[in-house]
Specification:
With 129 residues, the chain is mainly alpha-helical. α1 packs antiparallel against α2 (43-73). The protein contains 4 helices and no strands. Helices cover 47% and strands 0% of the residues.
Length: 129
């Protein structure tokens, strides 16, 4: 039912855009539109297009409200986010060792035998001269 209503809604939306574009411009926006002859001329054509636009707009609103009502009554959620379980991530990926000579491997080792590892006396990066 939802799919059929959605297809009707899309067809009415395209028809509504076409009807609005077919209407004659009366504002004279930058001198474009509303020129001499056209597909339909005269007052009768204007009344037909106006009435058709109003009918298409009413159908568009009706299908919009129907889709909202159908979506709100649906008890099951089809969201992808609702399907994700809250399982903690245990695999943190590969462990990258500290670069050689950086003394980072000594600073990050856990305390063993109650002693705290000493900080490096000098930086391991050569200084600019």
């Amino acid at each position: 039912m939802t799919t059929v209503l959605l297809i009707i809604h899309l067809m009415v939306a395209v028809a509504l855009v076409a009807l609005v574009l077919l209407q004659r411009s009366e504002g004279g926006a930058l001198g474009i539109g509303g020129g001499g002859g056209g597909l339909m001329t005269g007052r009768g054509a204007g009344n037909v297009l106006t009435r058709a636009t109003a009918i298409a707009a009413a159908i568009f609103f009706a299908t919009s409200l129907s889709l909202v009502v159908i979506a709100s009554r649906g008890g099951s959620s089809n969201s992808v986010l609702d399907k994700i379980s809250n399982v903690p991530v245990t695999n943190q990926g590969p462990v990258v060792p500290a670069p050689l000579g950086s003394d980072l491997d000594k600073a990050t080792k856990p305390v063993q035998n109650g002693t705290v590892p000493a900080a490096p006396a000098q930086p391991s990066v050569p200084r600019a001269q």
